Amino acid sequence: MLKQIEGSHAVAEVVAKCRPNVISAYPITPQTHIVEDLASIVGNGELDAEYVNVESEFSAASVVLGASAAGARAYSATTSQGLLLMSEVIYCIAGMRLPIVFTIANRAISAPLSIWNDQQDSMALRDSGWIQLHAEDNQEAADLHIQAFKIAEETHLPVMVCMDGFILTHAFEPVDVPDQKQVDSFLPPFQPTNIVDPRWPRGIGLFADPRFYLETRYILHRAMEKSEKTIKKVSQDFAKTFGRDSGGFIKTYKLKKADVVIISMGSLVGTIKDLIDQLEDEGKKVGLLQICSYRPFPRKEVYNTLKNKMNIVVVEKSISLGRGGILASDVRWSFPRHEKKDRNISSFIAGLGGRNITKNDLRHMVEKVEKEPVELEFLGLKKELIAKKDL
Amino acid sequence: MMNQSAEELNKIEKKDLFGSGHRACGGCGQALAARLVQDASGENTIACVATGCLEVFSSPYPDPAWRVPFLHSLFENASAVASGVEAAYKALKKGPVNIIAQGGDGSTADIGFQSISGMFERGHNVLYVCYDNEAYMNTGVQRSSFTPLGARTTTTPTGNKTRKKNLPLIAADHGIPYVATATVDDFRDLQRKVKTALSIEGPKYIHILAPCPLGWGHPGELTVQVCRLAKDTGLFPIYEIIDGKLTNVRKIQTKVPVQEYLKLQGRFSHLFKKGGSPKVIAEIQEIANQNIERFNL
Asked: Strand A203-204 and strand A377-378: pairing?
């Protein structure tokens, strides 16, 4: 049933319908509404789960690690500094192959302190062995959580569902929150296979000397690559059960005839689609390739979809300082070296720390790359705020 | 509290649930303590272990030395991981099971201090056992907040300048129902405390003095002797705090001057060289005297 609700509330309702056994979280803006709503859902008895209020994000991640290792379906949510504080546990959860699901309410990272949206936080953990799925809107954010538990439990890989902080978490939109029966029919109860249980004593988290460690990382990398199949299959099955497309590897918009292709992920693709429609009315052919699964990265899809496209521009809300656009690097790597010759892949950094990205900004970006490729540009940079020596 | 007869409580348990194949040094107090703890707890146990000596000498893949389920993830989060295991057992309506979080002094009192405080405060039904060897032994004997005054470590080469953090009392001040101290020379007392703790619902803390021959600089065969002197000097008081009430304090039969304890250990040898450091020794004696008075030893 369609309901006009806040993104955080939609996510909390849907997570509850996935019947997690243990939830543990530490409050941090803009994740708070999600965990508050879940606390009341558990508190009023709608969900039979243990809700563990902890003293830090580090412990929140550790509690769900322990819970998952003991056979529970476990969930947490965080963002920004909280995710960075968890980072040691984040790597550990992946290495231990625990199928935990997190919501990341994407937010900028200090310093300077900023509570507003960008995607630097999840980007900082991109190499940790977690699947990262990016939601375009609140419907997709809600849907991705249902898919995430299924993907995690089938692949033994943890999943982060990334949704832009405030822009999605605090936005009221119509969202179809599926009923419990539908979710139950799609997501069976968790059947853990490798748990701590006195009936079958075993060690989880043993240490590996140099004879074994390399292989564990290889296996994890291959598991990430192989999860592609599961992510796609779960998305297709979801469409069959719920009657709408959510998730998957990539999505495209008006791409076939496009002269310029914009690549992005998260809520920004909504604005981009609006611009594409406007430009179409003006006679310009611009298309979109949306990254839904950032890890594993859809390299083959990017290449196969864009092999005949010569003008590509990546716009992203994160940066590798001293290197440039991170998503842009991934996209550039998706094309074989010998084919790169005539293809322009421009890179724009936008929206850091919650700076609005307007259609005009994006129009400027498109006009610029129509003329010449752009190695790296900060969209909407106010040069008047920067001392000459720092330019 | 579950009723256990005095006979059951005082029985020395030997089940070999921990030990065979571990790689600890000869005379390692921690290995001995870990065996006593696991054997007292029995098969129905989940061990949540912090990174450190215990983890490293007992859990190399593919040869762990544990016959109870063993869970390790990081250095500073054994308490939180154990909290999660306990929450899962509650949520899944499994159990009862003995959940024992355990680690050395660094993972307990320093880097894991926040985590253990959170576990106590939230009231999880978990026993935390700290194997106190008074420094970071796994990384090569560096100072921790449990390193006693005067002790030489690789990061306090001229002797530690501060007194030891008193975690048992900090634990008790969280209002948890059971706190105890123990040493590895008295098997019966240590195992009785583990069994007592596990019979109580809620968070429990047992602090075990676990000498490290390598880090303390004493021959491995003197581990038991060193423990006895730690008690008989008053430097390591033995007691229980049940529901906030100090009880079962071990009385010292014949008080021993701290020099007897210090002289056995290389980490204090600088206090006796070239005229020695009578001031530091006197201050260590003062710590012992304060303990004797405070706990009526």
From this structure: unpaired
